[in-house]
Amino acid sequence: MKKIKVLIADDHAIVREGLKLLLDSDPDIEVVGEAEDGKIAIKKVKDLNPDMVIMDVSMPILNGMESTRLLKKEFPKINIIILSMYPDEEYIRSAIEVGANGYVLKKSASKEIFTAIHEINKGRTFFSPIVSPSVLDGYRKLAESHGKKKGKRKQVLTVREREVLQLVAEGHSTPEISKLLFIEERTVANHRQHIMNKLDIHDVAGLTRYAINRGIIKDY
After folding, report:
1. In what order do the strands lie in the sheet with 52-56?
2. pLDDT digits (tens, 9 = 90+) for 148-178
């Protein structure tokens, strides 16, 4: 039987090591690689061609949600499990929107990760039972409000703007962001201005608070 090839993406080495030890106990699973941030995760997927990625939500350079969005765009068939500390409806809905196949809470990962991997490998989805009511409630509210909302539509950040927002919130300067994203400094400055205008937040401290509240960066 063909093994399920898994890539682990988490910025904490101890978490990666723990997950690898755990997954190595299943003869049907093979951990083929590890990544400490979203950019490296994307590169490793291209290099190693795993069947599945276990993706931490909050990672430096590029967080798990944005990494998932980009991977699903380039590799639609890859399966991705979001690994998160947050049971909040907003995170779960974000995971669904970016195309994640599953959502597992870190505190219950040791019990649920095997079920998640095998269920998703069979073409199903898996969400930690504790978050399932939140998913259903969120979509119920969405259905009820569909077509009823009035006024100006909320401005949504593009993928590139979210990347820039994360790097700004992590304390990177415009030249540093330019080098990390391989874009001109003028383009970075334009993205920053667009982000501030869309969010109506006009200082770095405010952008950082927003990024922390949305789980884009970690609050250490």
Report:
1. 29-35, 4-9, 52-56, 79-84, 102-105, 126-127
2. 554 444 567 887 888 899 999 999 999 999 9
